[in-house]
Amino acid sequence: MTKKISLYALFTAVAMIFSFIESLYSFSLIPGIKLGLANSAVLLLLYYGDIKGGILVNISRILLTTLLFSNPFSLLYSLSGAAVSMLFVIFLRKSRFLSVVGCSVISAAVHNLTQITVAVLCFSTKEIFFYLPVLMVSGAVTGFAVGVFSAFFEKKCGKTIKNMIQ
Amino acid sequence: MIKKGDIIVFAVIILSAVLIAVGLFSFRKNGSELVITVNNEEYGRYPLSEDRVIPLEHNTAVIKDGFAYMESADCPDKVCVNSPKISKRNETVICLPNKVLLKVE
């Protein structure tokens, strides 16, 4: 039990560090786009079986990161994006056709789609949908990169992590 | 490590994005005025033909040379300030934290 708590705390801390590094500068010319490397911590837990842990770490790191580095208004977008994308990953992780990389791509794309939908609902202007193609492409690309990173990490440290989860 | 499904999903997403972009951008027309909406209520309409500085509570909008853009904002992420200038109908600049929307009509 203590092992699990320290593992989750570690994952949350690492996810927060990734978020902090990304907040230091924008990765591209397009506003609002980020790599989302912090998602790899969540993916590693969700994809390899620890659903409760994944949800816990994700909610913790979002709440903490937002309260520390951002304003609470963005919580609506972050949490809804995270919730829907996690649902997809939880359902798709067992598929034979997808690896962590595919799950990460879907996770990122769905996250962006959810955020844009929430924004449209809040602002009742469908013109925000112009941003949609940009978000989809960046979601797919960053999701792919984060997915490769997660898979690579799992190759190196997966056994250790799985032992701690059991 | 990477499976066939991953590539398919990636390609499908990119393809749909391109199709949507093509569809959206084939309907652009030049706009005549800037409409500013704050908190879902119309704040004002200003012709794009006249240079103007519009100070708002948390943001500053500017019209210059037929373009509109967000000059400054007190939000933490500054997405609105870094957004490209707008001039065509239905283009927008949006500040989510301060609930400000600039739209060309």
Characterise the protein shown here.
By secondary structure, chain A is an all-alpha fold. Chain A is 77% helix and 0% strand. The longest helix of chain A has 34 residues, at 132-165. Chain A is globular, with a radius of gyration of 16 Å. Chain A starts with a helix and ends with a helix. The model of chain A has no long low-confidence stretch (mean pLDDT 87). Chain B has 105 residues and is α+β, with helices and mostly antiparallel strands. Chain B contains 2 helices and 7 strands. Chain B has helices spanning 4-25, 79-82, and strands at residues 33-38, 41-47, 52-55, 59-64, 67-73, 92-95, 100-104. Chain B has a 4-stranded antiparallel beta sheet with strand order 2-1-7-6. In chain B, strands 3-4-5 form a 3-stranded antiparallel beta sheet. In chain B, a hairpin with a 2-residue loop joins strand 4 (59-64) and strand 5 (67-73). The longest helix of chain B is centred in the N-terminal third of the chain and has 22 residues, at 4-25. Chain B is elongated. Chains A and B meet through helix 5 and helix 6 of A and helix 1 and helix 2 of B.
DSSP strand content of chain A: under 5%
The assigned structural class of chain B equals alpha+beta
Count the DSSP helices of chain A. Answer: 6
- Major sheet size, sense and barrel closure of chain A: none
Assembly status: heterodimer
Overall 3D form of chain A: globular
Query: What is the count of DSSP helices of chain B, taking H or I runs of 4+ residues?
Result: 2
Q: Which of globular, elongated, flat, extended, rod-shaped describes the shape of chain B?
A: elongated
